[in-house]
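Quarterly update, task 2.4: adenosine monophosphate-bound model.
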Amino acid sequence: MMRLVLLGPPGVGKGTQAERIAQGYGIPHVSTGDMFREAVKRGTELGRTAQEYMRSGRLVPDEVTIGLVRERLSADDCRNGFVLDGFPRNLVQARAFDEVLAQIGSRLDAVISIDASVETLVARLTGRRTCRRCGTPYHVIFNPPPDPNTCPACGGELYQRDDDKEETVRKRLEVYEAETSPLVDYYRAQGLLQVINGEQDIDKVYEDIRRALEEATAHDRA
Ligand code: ADP
Ligand code: AMP
């Protein structure tokens, strides 16, 4: 049982680490960005709403996002926990999420905040390639797939996300600073925050996360 939030700027490695955590702990990886991209791909009403916000690097409206997460977390596979990646993204979402947790009689075990410099984030985002089918992220230099166009996990096509172009990247980093970074203090005040250095290689970041989670859950048991 593990209920986690991964916090951090775009490109810091949340999706990459969330996949490992999901496998390592046997819990679903819940990514609001992946859910929105899936809706866009399917051409649903949700997708049509989300698309214009995503394209310009802004946040999708809170009512839409909160409703989506509430529904997803009530699914059976989330009963034994989840790793949330990309939600909450502002204080309104964080407070609404606290209410959702209280309603289902549940609470978070930890919030992992991953850090890196702006130069690192820009380099990671502009070189990112994402699987159209399963959403797994790769990087042309830092985590190159054997075949540059094909996902080694599922055989899907790799592409560059629209919002990973340089102009949109800048906007997304601004939105993070203005709207999402206050959540670091919010969760520190709740005693849930663990800060991880995201400048290290993927394996080392994961190792640090595992150690932080062991500590967080050891506290719980004490
Ligand atoms: P986020 O979900 O936080 O936006 P991703 O997990 O998609 O970030 O990672 C962004 C990009 O950086 C991807 O191309 C990924 O392969 C790469 N990446 C992730 N973690 C690291 C790391 N520790 N070192 C180098 N590159 C990384
Ligand atoms: P991500 O895949 O997390 O980088 O998110 C990609 C885009 O999806 C963001 O730039 C937003 O437009 C949208 N998005 C993802 N998660 C949220 C959220 N919790 N609230 C609002 N918008 C979101």
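Highlight for this quarter: The pocket of adenosine monophosphate (ligand 2) is lined by residues 10, 32-33, 36, 53-54, 57-60, 65, 86-87, 89, 93, 163, 172 (CB under 6 Å).
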